[in-house]
Amino acid sequence: MARRPRPPLPRFRRRSPPPTPWLIRGLAFVWRWLNRLLFAVLVLVLCGLIGLIGLYFYYGRDLPPPELIDQHRSFENTRIYARDGITLLYEVIGPGVRVPVALDRIPQILRDATVAVEDANFYTNPGVDLPSVIRAFWQNLTAGETVSGASTITMQLVRTILLTPEEARQQTIERKIREAILAIRVGQEYSKDQILSLYLNEVYYGAQAYGVEAAARRYFGKHVWDLSRGEATLLAGLPQSPSVYNPFENLPLARARQRIVLNQMVKAGFISAAEADAIFAEPIRLVTPTVTISAPHFVFYVYDLLVQRFGEEMVNRGGLRVITTLDPAWQMQAEQVAAEKVATLRERKASNAGVVMLSPDGQILAMVGSVDYNAPDGQVNVTLALRQPGSTLKPFIYAAALQRGWTPATILWDIPSRWQINGVVYEPRNYDGRFRGPVRLRLALANSLNIPAVKALEFVGVEAFVDLMTQFGVTSFTDPARYGLAMALGSNEVRLLELTGAYAGLRAGGRQVRPVAILRVTNSRGEVLETWQPTRGKPLLGPQSEQIAFLISDILSDNAARWPVFGRNNVMELPGIPAAVKTGTSNDYRDSWAIGYTDAVIIGVWVGNNDNQPMAEVAGANGAGLIWRELMLRYHANRVARPFVPPTGIVEQPVCVETGGPPNPECPQVITERFVVGSGPVSALSFQTVRVGGDGSCLATTYTPPEEVRLVTFPVYPTEVAEWARRNGKVAPTSYCPPPREPERAIALLDLAEQSVITNTLIFIKGTARGPFILDVGSGTDPTDWQVLGQSSQPVEQGLLGMWNAGSWSAGDYTIRLRVTLADGVVIEERRRITYRP
């Protein structure tokens, strides 16, 4: 059956809505966009929270737990002990001094001032001050660099205690995020008082003071609980930049910072503006800090060595235990003697001294860097300062010369000498202004003669000498432009410690000896980090180093060899104590030196002024030598001093004093000298023996009275010193003694002129003979055979004495001789040399 179609629905006409007012339409539009904006903000907040949570877990995943604060131990101070391991010389304060103090002992005003200036919202923020972070972010962004860190007190604390030093020094956003996360965690674990207490005991206040108690003592010499309001608020401003605001160095700037602190306290409501003004008006009186320390120059020398080996962080914080070489007893003796002797020299414009005492293996037993450490310039360690050494380098110059073949008997010429180097004339002079001609090397070194030393350096070579001194431990010869022959007299600066170590090398047989100050170093757990053991240094003077070094020691300990210049019983002579010593004096008496050794100790002394001002004729012998002598006498008061024993390879041989060579019959004086096996005396001169008369300045003749005639041996000098020898009467005379011409005595006078030329064959010879006479002639200028021309027992006064018939004689040179016998039997004569040309 077919379905009936549904009838169509009735159509209704849609009615148009009434028109909407424009205000309703606008509100609807705003409402829709507000909904969308709110949704976007919610999304952003949600994303931000998710991001913050992500950052929190990402950067906080490997942070140290806050509980480590309970295990935190501040840096441990390194302690430096004397050689006995008991006497504490100094406790290294490292980064500074820290003295923990309870929070209730810290004045409330100091706590409030710290909070006001460092973290105003400290008591309300969770460890991070978000408004400050946002403000700092904007300041840094607009400045283009980091100008604000927005660190709270809690953040500063965790940076100091919980972050590693390396991370704490980083200026990165990552470090700030980790620091903030850690601060929040610490804020959850610890109370505000606990955090503030830790902060006030850890923060750095400058001048090596960590924590408020150390700072109060350092700046004001009082406990923190005794601080005035002004002092407390001044301290509160220092941690922001301790070196900049250090009141010892810039009190006005520190006071300006105090004003800022007070303003912040007013702003935070801790005090009123009137109170701030009253506090700022309070006087600030700083107290200069004092340090209790023994042997300060030595201690800081050791400190520098430790820093070089272990680093500043370990030395300042690691709690090292250091056993040094210092002997407290001898340190005290050295300080006492130096101060006493300098006190006697002050009227001669000497104000300071340095002393180094070494054991034979190089251990520093005493180091006096100045006679008064607390003097204005007393902190300067003169044992490490560069000063001109005067003649104290000469032993090493001669050691190098011995290495190259010279011997203690080698003759050196102490005569006026000059060198022209690069257009500059160098003419050294001896200390006493005298010239001694030929001198043996032993005497040249023992008497510190300057000209022989310069010639020795010329023989050795400046470059070779510099290299040798470097091997002996002198590190200051680093400027080649200043090298020259003047080094022989100490024109280049050295350090007392290093030069004393070089002398220790001579004492050790010419081997390398380095001064040592540290015997053992352990850490805070007792683990040994370093131990010193003596070693035998390499020989520095060649295969015969020990023998050469002994010869130098032998010369420097030869008291008699020094007598010509220094005299007997000089300051270098120690009764019953064999000691090798050398003094030195720089130009204008600016530096006085004495360095020497026995079998038991090496002592080096310098006297002078830190500002290099000249002294009033204070030389090595009457300046530094006084301190050296007194210390040597004290050191050996209860010790048996042993002489320097010749090693194998040393022989003794006779030497001619004048020539330095083997003795011969003409040698007037023979001594015994020591030599290295294989070497020996080599003569520098020869001799001639002549007959002299009168005072010895002329050659004797037949008319010279017999009692005045004698045989004298004279050295024959090389050409380069002949003029000096002649001026000083050191050579044999070349002219004959004149005849006696007293008118009351019988005389022999020939009227014939000297060097006459005779042409006649018959020659009448006239003259005066006041006594019996003989007139004769001989062939040549110094005849051996004579023919009598006339004789008489009667005197003749201006008359004919004789006649020579020369016709039978050949042409040539002849000598006419008149001899007169005096009443006492003495014969005088006069000669004329003539030429016969028939």
Could you characterize what this model shows?
The chain has 24 helices and 31 strands. The N and C termini lie far apart (205 Å). Helix 3 crosses helix 11 (251-268). A hairpin with a 7-residue loop joins strand 27 and strand 28. Residues 143-148 have low confidence and may be disordered. Helix content is 34%, strand content 19%. By secondary structure, the protein is α+β, with helices and mostly antiparallel strands. Strands 2-1-5-14-15 form a five-stranded mixed β-sheet. A five-stranded antiparallel β-sheet has the order 7-6-18-17-16, sandwiched between helices. A five-stranded mixed β-sheet has the order 25-31-30-27-28, with no helix packed on it. It has four domains: 88-281, Penicillin binding protein transpeptidase fold (Orthogonal Bundle), CATH 1.10.3810.10; 353-516 and 533-635, 3-Layer(aba) Sandwich (Beta-lactamase); 686-727, no CATH class; 748-836, Immunoglobulin-like. The protein is elongated, with a radius of gyration of 49 Å.
What's the CATH H-level superfamily name of the largest domain? Answer: DD-peptidase/beta-lactamase superfamily
Overall, the morphology is: elongated
Classify the secondary structure makeup into a structural class. Answer: alpha+beta
Average predicted local confidence, pLDDT: 86
Instruction: Assign the CATH class of the largest domain.
Output: Alpha Beta
**What is the count of DSSP helices, taking H or I runs of 4+ residues?**
24
Number of strands: 31
> How would you write the strand order of the largest sheet?
2-1-5-14-15
Low-confidence stretches: 143-148
User: CATH fold name of the largest domain, please?
Assistant: Beta-lactamase
Rounded radius of gyration (Å): 49 Å
Estimate the strand proportion. Answer: 15-25%
Task: Please tell me the total number of domains.
Answer: 4
* Biggest pleated-sheet summary: 5 strands, mixed
In percent, how helical is the residue content? 25-40%
CATH architecture of the largest domain: 3-Layer(aba) Sandwich
Distance between the ends: 205 Å
